[in-house]
Amino acid sequence: MDKKEIIEIVKSKNIKFIEMWFTDILGRIKTFTITANELPEALETGMGFDGSSVEGFARIYESDLIAKPDPDSFKILPYKENTAKMVCDIYTPEGTPYEGDPRYCLKRNLEQLKNFGFDEYYVGPELEYFYFKSNKLPEIVDTAGYFDSMPGEDAGDLLRTKTIEYLESMGIQAEYAHHEVAPSQHEIDLKYDSALKMADKVITYKVVVKEVARQNGLYATFMPKPITGVNGSGMHVHQSLFKNGKNTFFSEKDKYHLSDVAKWFIAGILRHCREICIVTNQWVNSYKRLVPGYEAPVYICWASKNRSALIRVPEYKPGKEKATRIEVRFPDPACNPYLAFAVMLRAGLEGIKNKYPLPEPLEVSAYEMEEIERKARKIEELPGSLIEAIEIAEESKLLKETLGEHIFLKFLENKKIEWDNYRTKVTDYEINRYFYIL
């Protein structure tokens, strides 16, 4: 869509307001609204704003930044009257891309595809989330389980349907929607797309899910582990690399129908997943999900049928070569999608660059193995806490190159503050466990 076309649509549809969307380094959506009269200027030169108040952006003495909307991201919001939205790229006043912009970080890393001879990095995320009665306490609204759908059993059925209607009106296609394993837990899967478009779609998806819940007097959260003792929410990401319209992950002769490129890519993510975990699982709460027994992957291995593996290869269907892909299962939906897609891509490309050997698949549950057996098989674990992830990330050359120095330093600074706030707080658990016996 070009600028002139957008302006004509705004006039013909009586759009009065345009929301300018971008994210901070943590993935929180930031928005300011302009009137239709300001749209031509916004499209031409962008709109200035104070970057010093955005997490991970500019310091107070270099705060002026420019938000320039991407014309391809223009969509009319179905849940707000006379309002549209556009996703923005962030620039300095001199007109250069801003290094603290997560969207620019992903765009910069997608440029690496050309050096490897690829055209597209396709991703298809499965985002899980919970509906609760309010935003004060995690009170569930149903006790249904996986795929349950009897009338009155699944309280989110109509909400998911309305969410899909809104998404599709904005050009975002959903593939599946269903109740998940935990009470009040739900999932809507998006049809795969190129990584930059999909990252834009993910932030839109989150807004729409929350808006539909709000309209119905509920609260939706993408918090990885809001309830003790049940499954947390993940964001499994299906991935593949294409060249000249062909899926480079497919091989007709291989047992798993995986090409060498696909195997090297898998090996790259397996080798570097501990380093990038700080981005794909960025919160203290993320590591409450990454524990054995709740379907979230903990042990670093891959498989075809074993769903406890960190990376799974969905079974090949004859005639569906383009659908050959890998499913990376450790990210959670509270991550910043721009940064998460960037670090997974670079880890995979590092595997291709160095032709990392792929270990044999693990088709038995790593959870059921004795620790001595896992050690014998050299099966490592993901970080067990945010501080462990921070310490690993600080030493990662790959992560620093992927994020760029600005985001790398600001991101780790923020995570250290989060960890300090967490570790110095006396929790209800400690009061209940120790107060009366010590």
What does the model show?
36% of the residues lie in helices and 19% in strands. By secondary structure, the chain is an alpha+beta fold. It folds into 2 domains: 96 residues, Ubiquitin-like (UB roll) (Roll), CATH 3.10.20.70; 321 residues, Creatine Kinase, Chain A, domain 2. Strands 7, 8, 9, 10, 11, 12, 13, 14, 15 and 16 form a 10-stranded mixed sheet that branches. Strands 1, 2, 3, 4, 5 and 6 form a 6-stranded mixed sheet that branches. β1 and β2 form a beta hairpin. α7 packs antiparallel against α9, α7 crosses α11 and α11 packs antiparallel against α12. The chain is globular and about 65 Å long. The protein starts with a helix and ends with a helix.
SSE order and pairing:
Elements lengths: L2 H10 L4 E7 L5 E7 L3 H7 L1 E4 L13 E6 L5 E2 L6 E9 L10 H9 L1 H4 L4 E13 L24 H13 L4 E6 L5 E6 L2 E2 H21 L3 E3 L13 E9 L2 E2 L12 H21 L5 H4 L12 E2 L7 E2 L13 E3 L8 H18 L16 H6 L9 H9 L2 H27 L4 H7 L4
Parallel strand pairs: 1-6, 14-15
Antiparallel strand pairs: 1-2, 3-4, 4-6, 5-6, 7-9, 7-10, 7-11, 7-12, 8-9, 12-13, 12-16, 15-16
